[in-house]
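Quick one:
INPUT:
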């Protein structure tokens, strides 16, 4: 029997954007092409500072007369505040819809097919009064849901076994995918260092958006000196923020970790030394081995 799992994601919240200018409003702010968001397609995007540094990342899903942002619940009020600053005379309404809408995820053997989903990342369909869609970052992550709170366990009716959010977190770490501010430091992290390009958050063909110029400059001038990379941890899990060293020098910083896997922001020269010469990367008493997943271009 195929092993397929689902979980609610209580650390996520939902913003509803209504009004006739909703697409145009977001299009001028975020890193991806909002015109691609339709009932059959969702996208992943980021809001950056004017200097091209990370502020927020989120998923954008289309409803009948609204757009929905699946974002970090702990920072939802701040995201709403930021969006409100740019509202000006745009005909849009912004509200927290988390009281009635919830986010869930499903993964495992044939998870998309069990839900009638196929095709490219971001492909979406109606499900249980809401939306199911292939994770726009990476199909291997599985399926995400935007559902009425009363239907949060609807995947069980499609043959998925319930698991907790920590189990999904292990799945995410195994694939080396960042999770919001656990891995991306606001006003500090850079999209090209953080894998947001490979994970589909940036559309290089769209018009201007906040932070576009500096993001493009990093891409076309090959200015990336660090990368957020998955690491295998030998020893106890390492606390976020722990300094990583190599031969006594600074090599990076540890971010989220669980059960021997983690993500770390590493200097590329240190990664090269570790892979070619076996130079140890250390975080406290633990040793780290960088791993480059197939989706990542380093």
């Amino acid at each position: 029997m195929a092993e397929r799992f689902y979980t609610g994601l209580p650390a996520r919240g939902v913003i509803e954007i209504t009004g006739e200018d909703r697409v145009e409003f977001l299009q001028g702010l975020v890193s991806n092409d909002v015109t691609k968001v339709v009932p059959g397609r969702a996208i992943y995007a980021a809001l950056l500072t004017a200097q091209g540094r990370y502020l927020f990342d989120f998923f954008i899903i289309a409803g009948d007369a609204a757009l929905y942002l699946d974002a970090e619940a702990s920072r939802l009020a701040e995201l709403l505040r930021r969006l409100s600053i740019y509202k000006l005379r745009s005909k849009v309404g912004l509200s927290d819809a988390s009281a009635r809408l919830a986010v869930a995820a499903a993964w495992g053997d044939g998870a998309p097919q069990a839900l009638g989903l196929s095709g490219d990342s971001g492909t979406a369909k109606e499900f249980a009064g809401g939306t199911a869609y292939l994770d726009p970052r990476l199909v291997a992550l599985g399926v995400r849901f935007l559902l009425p709170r009363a239907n949060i366990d609807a995947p069980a009716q499609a043959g998925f076994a319930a698991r907790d959010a920590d189990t999904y977190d292990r799945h995410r770490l195994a694939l080396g995918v960042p999770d919001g501010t656990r891995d991306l430091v606001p006003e500090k992290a850079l999209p090209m260092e953080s894998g947001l390009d490979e994970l589909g958050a940036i559309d290089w063909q769209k018009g201007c958006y906040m932070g576009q110029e500096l993001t493009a400059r990093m891409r076309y001038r090959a200015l990336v000196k660090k990368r957020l990379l998955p690491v295998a941890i030998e020893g106890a899990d390492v606390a976020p923020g722990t300094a990583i060293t190599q031969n006594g020098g600074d090599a990076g910083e540890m971010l989220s970790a669980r059960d021997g896997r983690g993500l770390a922001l590493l200097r590329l020269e240190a990664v090269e030394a570790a892979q070619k010469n076996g130079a140890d990367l250390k975080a406290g008493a633990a040793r780290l081995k960088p791993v480059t997943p197939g989706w990542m271009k380093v």
